[in-house]
């Protein structure tokens, strides 16, 4: 009788635990990885925030002969706008590139020497936008593999953007 009662109790506990496990939905964890950076050795290190659930909606670039500064603007799942940090100085002319709904950044390319001389973005909708000058002796290209997107930037900056790499997000 004790054996049967123990087995029934054990089975009941197992069934309760099993039903609790079935009710929990697994969380989809967004992962981040880094590619790069390319560029010169100067400036101070920077990296955009690796917060899940954000979508890049705008890229702000100050440029002239070099990329003076770059800044990403995000939107969360409930539509709140989150402005990222400015990386670089206050020189150059400000230009804003707005992404369309559902559009992501898939490639960042350009040229560099001691600074990032030029930068071009390519989106999932085939749109491109470029900034900067014609100098720089080294080409760089960072592309998001299928199933991921460019979520932010990292590198080094001071008066200009000295070095640049990308932060990839994979849902």
Proportion of strand residues: over 45%
Number of strands: 13
The CATH class is Mainly Beta
In DSSP terms (H or I, runs of 4 or more residues), the helix count works out at 1
Count of individual domains: 1
SS content category:
mainly beta
CATH-level-2 architecture: Aligned Prism
What is the helix content?
A: 10-25%
Largest sheet: 5 strands, antiparallel
CATH homologous superfamily placement: Jacalin-like lectin domain
Low-confidence stretches: 6-27
SSE string = HEEEEEEEEEEEEE
Kindly report the average pLDDT value.
Answer: 88
Report how far the terminal alpha carbons are from each other.
53 Å
Question: For the CA atoms, what is the radius of gyration?
Answer: 23 Å
């Amino acid at each position: 009788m004790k054996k049967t009662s123990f087995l029934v109790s054990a089975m009941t506990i197992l069934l309760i635990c099993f039903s609790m496990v079935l009710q929990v939905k697994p969380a989809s964890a967004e992962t981040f990885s880094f590619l790069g950076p390319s560029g010169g050795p100067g400036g101070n290190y920077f990296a955009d925030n690796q917060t899940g659930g954000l979508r890049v909606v705008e890229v702000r670039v100050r440029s002239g002969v070099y990329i003076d500064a770059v800044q990403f603007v995000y939107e969360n799942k409930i539509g709140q706008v989150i402005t990222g940090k400015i990386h670089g100085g206050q020189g150059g002319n400000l230009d804003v590139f707005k992404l369309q709904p559902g559009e992501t950044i898939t490639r960042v390319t350009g040229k560099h020497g001691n600074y990032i001389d030029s930068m071009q973005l390519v989106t999932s909708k085939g749109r491109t936008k470029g900034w900067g000058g014609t100098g720089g002796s080294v080409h760089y290209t960072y592309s998001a593999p299928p199933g991921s997107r460019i979520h932010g930037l990292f590198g080094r900056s001071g008066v200009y953007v000295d070095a640049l790499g990308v932060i990839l997000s994979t849902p």
